[in-house]
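Q: My collaborator sent me two sequences in one message, no labels, and asked for predicted structures for both. Can we handle them in order? The first one she listed is below.
A: Yes, handling them in the order given. First sequence, followed by its structure tokens:
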Amino acid sequence: MKQIVECLAAQHAELDALLADLPEPRWATPTRCPGWTVADVVLHLAQTDELAAASAEQRPLQAGSWVVPAGGGTVDDAAGAMVAAERGRPAAEVLARWRAAAADARAALAGCDPKARLTWVEGDLAARTLATTRLAESWIHTGDVADALGVHLPASDRLWHVARLAWRTLPYAFARAGATLSGPVALVLDAPGGDRWSFGDGTAVTTVRGDAVEFCLVAGRRLDPARTGLVAQGPDGPAVLDLVRTYA
């Protein structure tokens, strides 16, 4: 747990460096999140970090969180509604709120038993998994902000945790899509630092090989698998790349 929270702190610091001296007008820059500006992305992170801190501290989640809009929709729709309800605040206010929420989330998660079950979205999950989910989301949205601002950020081996999360939650991803895995899946990924990351064992019936950053971007729904060098062999190969994800 300590290592994941340290990685989360490093990820927060990377995003903070992009935002600290950003002029107010640039907070209105559109991002690759449809309909969201830089300010909207940071507001979303503040809102969800607040929810993560509350969950880790076993406090009731705030009223209106994760409520799907009337007429049906998805968790993404609910997140969009949360942002829309508080959009338009000054950049300095949004930044201060996110910094406080991020610090609170790190502190609360650091104090958890890694195996403790915590409320999240429409169910519950282990504290370690929630911490890793926060790392994954922070990394994804840091990339959204950097892309909007035209900044290139080098990849970090923090992504090991993101890749592992995507691999471990494949059964959940398939279940949400109404599908079932034919058998275990293995990953063999080339890490940013030059190492090779392997997840799974000799029982795997499907294996995904390729670049770790590309795999994590696919899992974060930021890159089309067809535009990568990832190779998925086995009965579930195409479905794994289509359904893998790092968030609820």
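Q: And the one she listed second?
A: Here it is, processed independently of the first:
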Amino acid sequence: MKRGWITWDENELPREAFDARLDIARRHLAERDLPALIVYTDIWRSNRVRHFCNFMPYWNRALLVIPREGAPTLLCGLSPRVYPWIRSVTILEEIRPSPNLAQQVLTMAAEKNWQRLGVLDLDQLPSDLHQQLRAGAVPVEDVSLLLPPDEWELAMYREAARMAREGIADDLSQGVGLRDHEFTGRLERKFRGAGAEDLVILLTNGKTAPMPPRGETLGQDFSIALALEYRGHWVKIARSASSRDPIPTHIHVENLSGAYPYTPSGRLELSSVLAVRYESQTGGVRRFHGDTYWTGSGGLHLL
């Protein structure tokens, strides 16, 4: 199972956040004279639909239909037995079983008398869906919609980053001398208990880039690269146990707030959440550091 226990705390993420986000989409639809917007989601490409309604699939895929007027509808490939759970953690009320997503879109368009449809990032859809929607009776148009993190989203990223930083800081020095599997297990237990839905923990003793545990004993210069998901919001933190001051030699940047988490980014994009990791080397030992930032007014801000 990719994610752990998913809940929705409306004190942390209120309904008004989703109302504001949907209003942005509806204004764009009005400008384009489109009756509805189709947004794709699956296990990895979950940022967009999560942004609009808080739905994050455990597996399978779905389409969110955002009409210009009225509430959004989820066309869902998951079994109806999980629909009560979906309603409990999202703003969604109408969920339609949809083993054939493209056909369900066309059926819904016929019911609503929609003559055209917008699809968010149409050319990034899986090839089968792209072909079926392109060949359907209702014309579809590509919609490119900028979705910068709002105040609620940034607060969630900050909480994820705080959890990751504090968890690593508490245990980093204690990892020296432990087997990498044991150290990973300790962190896994801690972060899962704190509410992390997914984790990727990579380690290195300095001869390679961070990798999954391999049964090695961690040395005094070992590094950890941690990716942590908190309620759909991913952050990445890297730290070295070494006491030597790092002198960066290589820098790697990823956009965590795009359609996919872990999207390589060659530049610092405005209004994005970015993971920045850099490598330093001393005496042939590779050490890794990094953190998660937001690019807003005034430049790069640590989350």
